[in-house]
Amino acid sequence: MAVFQLILCIIAAVVLSSFISRFIPKVSTPLVQIALGAVASQLPFFPNVELDPELFMVLFIAPLLYLEAHEIDKSGLLKTLKLSLSLAIGLAIATMVAVGVILHAIWPAIPLAAGLALGAALGPTDAVAVSSLGKEAALTQRQMSVLKGESLFNDASGIVGFQFAIAAAVTGQFEVGEAAGEFVVSFIGGALFGLAIGLVANWLFETIRSLGWETTTTRILMELFLPFLLYLAAEDIAHVSGILSVVASGLFIRFDRTGVGPNVARTNIVSNSVWGVLSFTLNGAVFILLGMLLPGAMGNSWEDPGVSNILLIGVIMLVSLVVIAMRFIWVSAMLRLAHDTQTGHRRHMTPERWRSAAVMTFGGAKGTITLSLMFTIPYAISGGRWFPMRDELIFIASGVIIVTLLLANFLLPAIAPNRSGDTSLEMTEVTIEVLRRTVEELTGRVTNENRRAVLMVIDSYTKRITRLKQRTGEIDPQRYAQLQIDALGWEKDYVKQRLLDTKRSKEGTQANRDLEIEACERLLDQIMNSLRHISTDRNSGRAMWQIRGRMRALQRRTLTLIRRTSSRIRRTTPLISDDEIFAHTRMVQLAAFEHVIDRLYEEMTRDTYNTEHCSALLLDYRRAESALRARPNMTGSAKTIGMAEDVKRESYGIELGVIQDMVEAGEITRAQAKTLRRNVYVMSVDADSSL
Fold first, then answer.
1. CA–CA dist 335, 354 (Å, integer)
2. 380: which strand partners?
3. Domain-by-domain residue ranges, the chain?
4. Is residue 99 within 8 Å of residue 322, measured between CB atoms?
5. Is the separation of the CB atoms in 501 and 520 below 8 Å?
6. Where does the sequence pass through the membrane (predicted)?
7. Which residues pair with 137 in a beta bridge?
8. Of residues 665, 670, 651, the one with CA closest to residue 464
9. 102-121 burial by CB neighbour count: b if 16+ within 10 A, else e?
10. DSSP SS3 for 609
């Protein structure tokens, strides 16, 4: 029961970390998860359960490595294979030896074999951590290919080296010749075993699909169980490296690319979603566990009178320096020795190449694999004695992980800053992709009842895509978006003034004034909701401003409800139908559009805004105005428009979800996502007019 409670608490912490990361985009998700784990470990209801190291390896390492190998860009991997293998094997061995020797020299209480094990564990690069850190940095495709390829191969080499070092520490014996022979057998045998299983899996999946036996459920279950079964079979039956078997199989299996048709596409979509959730959960759980482990390991070492706290911190700094310095020297040497693909000559180290070496150095953050390996250190060695300095080794590894993550989090954006201003072409293409995915999702939700309403919303998205394609590369998206925001402000000011004038006026009947008031308040709520989401000039008091705005909107709705209820009871005025309110709201919106159009014409004669931006926005408002005027019977479509309103709100949720998915997948940066989210609310008013 305690284990089950621990799992639930960890999952809850992972979910919480995904929300917190959205509010502090400058801090990477792994760092947030580590902090959450440290805080959670101090809570009384958070269980403290020790996991079996072997179970930890199977539960976390096998599926994560399989997914990493399966999703890596194979062509990019081949192009950077030499450099990736050099880092994965050569640098991993050099780091293992350097850390082990230096650590044993400055702290003799740590056996050489245990120091080598720490060095081996610090060899692997965590590509998942790098991908989350890289959201704020502009890494080239080659740099990402090198880092991902390195992490894939040095996971295997680091784990095999770690296992041999731990075996030597436990038994007290280490034969170099025998270890090398076992390493070759385990390495080659694991790769061959994984390839063989990959061949069988490909044939099996294709046969099941061709016979029509495959269902989404069976496909997902087989895919999920494959890395676990493969690892266990390699270790317990074939007695070869389970890690290398999982990697080789993940590189070779291609069942998700076979077959055509809607059922296959639907299954692949579900598969990607399941793996996305699983990988985020497993990686998050590892970092949560790291945070949970830190207080205990720190407390044991910190309170031990036989261990110097200053020495502990100093060792962390020294080991971090050794790991980073060796990596920078190694990468720089490989870049210097590399031959130009066109001339065949070695290239000189230019400032740009030195910067690239620094990027790949600080991009090699340690994380999941390092921590997982340190968790597998046994508690006892031969003879029943406790494993020497186990807590201190885990503490040192955790400290190095945090140091490398902090350096990657704050130095990578400084060395390789993201393009602060996305080009019009790039941002427009990203926006079109978001809209296209939203339309695809909406298309799948069409039913006989909502067909007309959904098609109205899809039509509005289609028009937006068409307009974006027409002006691809012609408009600065940031300045144009600011003009759109200002135009919404002009609409708001016009509607507020019209509402105020109506409340003060005594002309006309009470029914007409009530109709005007309700229409203005509805449109004002809609505009204010958009502005609350996209405002950039109220950062300090934005939360309070949003709360006050929502309270005012609630107050307006409450007064309207009271007024209509009072009229119904007293029957002092005729009741206003929804059809009348919809029609009059559109009339007010038309007047607001005309006001903005006049204002845009005025701005074109000034220097406040770019003339091309004003012209483009004028066209958008003219189209929206024409769409409203061309509607044949606004008063007879309240029900359909009401359904369209619901679909429209749903589409905004879909659009925001698509943006978040693209951020987590690394397809767009956090800065781009922020701009896209603002655009969702900016365009909401324009979309209303086209429904």
1. 9
2. 386
3. 52-415, 424-690
4. yes
5. no
6. 55-72, 84-107, 183-205, 225-253, 274-298, 310-335, 356-381, 393-412
7. 417
8. 651
9. bbbeebeebbbbbbbbbbbb
10. coil
**Amino acid at residue number 545:** W
Q: Burial code of 363-400, b = ≥16 C-beta within 10 A, e = fewer? A: bbbbbbbbbbbbbbbeeebeeeeebebbbbbbbbbbbb
Phi-psi label, residue 346: left if phi above 0, alpha if psi -120 to 50, beta otherwise: beta
**What is the pLDDT at residue 186?**
76
Q: How many CB atoms lie under 10 A from the CB of residue 291? A: 24
Q: Which residues contact 553 (CB under 8 A, 6 or more apart)?
A: 525, 528, 529
For residues 472 and 486, give the distance between their C-alpha atoms in angstroms, rounded to a whole number: 22
CA distance 594 to 622: 9
| Burial readout 126-145 (b: 16 or more C-beta within 10 A, e: otherwise) | bbbbbbbbbbbbbbeeebbb
Return the residue matching tokens 């014409």.
Answer: 601
Give residue 602's pLDDT: 81
CA angle 120, 123, 127 (to 5 degrees): 140
Positive or negative: CA dihedral 15, 540, 656, 450: positive
Residues 51 and 44: their CA atoms lie apart, in Å, by 19
The share of the chain scoring above pLDDT 70, in percent, equals 76
Of 125-134, 208-217, 501-510, give the lowest mean pLDDT range. Answer: 125-134
pLDDT per residue as tens digits for the range 367-386: 767 877 887 788 787 777 78
**Looking at beta carbons, which pairs linking 522-525 to residues 24 or more positions away fall under 8 Å?**
522/581, 522/585, 523/495, 523/585, 523/588, 523/589, 523/592, 524/492, 524/495, 524/496, 524/499, 524/556, 525/553, 525/556, 525/557
Dihedral (CA of 161, 167, 169, 174) sign:
negative
Closest CA to 613 of 434, 427, 485: 485
Amino acid letter for position 444: G
In contact, 366 and 396? CB cutoff 8 Å: no
CB 64 within 8 A of CB 250: no
Say whether pLDDT at 545 is over 50.
no
Q: Which CATH number fits domain 52-415: 1.10.132.30, 1.20.1530.20, 1.10.760.10, 2.30.110.10?
A: 1.20.1530.20
Which parts of 363-443 fold into alpha helices (H)? 368-375, 390-415, 424-443
Is the Cβ–Cβ distance between 371 and 34 less than 8 Å? no
Q: Can you list the pairs that 600-604 forms with residues at least 24 positions away whose Cβ atoms lie under 8 Å?
A: 600/487
